[in-house]
Request: fold
Amino acid sequence: MPLHAQPVASHSNVNTPAGRKSGIQFSAVVLCLMLGGCGGGFSLSKADDVSVTTASIAGGQPADTQMISDQSTIRNAVSQADLSTLDQTGMAWTNDETGSRGAISSISEYADSGATCRKFVVSRESYNGVSLYDGDACLVNGRDWKMRAFKSM
Reply:
């Protein structure tokens, strides 16, 4: 048996007061559903208040593991910097493992109890935001650089 479309309301019923009222109610319900679904309660005037948070971060590492990895990357960059060619703008650093990056500036070298040390200021841009740190790294036993200080400014 073939299927035939059945009209929702007959034309003769639409012109009656009851037919018009139910048609208007139906249209109002459809309009409300459409606006509610499309609008979703989002206001463009509040767009600055919108933020997105995800459960994972680059490398899948916890924040403290990221900081340790970033400090190691920064320490290596500071230890390899050629201070004779470094200008006032400093040098950039990037940690591909964590996705963090920044700039190292104000590197100065000094001796402390026979060890070569370097003080520096570094910015760190990560998924947690942008921060500025005061750091200090020293060459231990003439071969390994160790971070002695890394404090938030």
Notes: The two ends are 81 Å apart (CA to CA). Residues 63-152 form one domain.
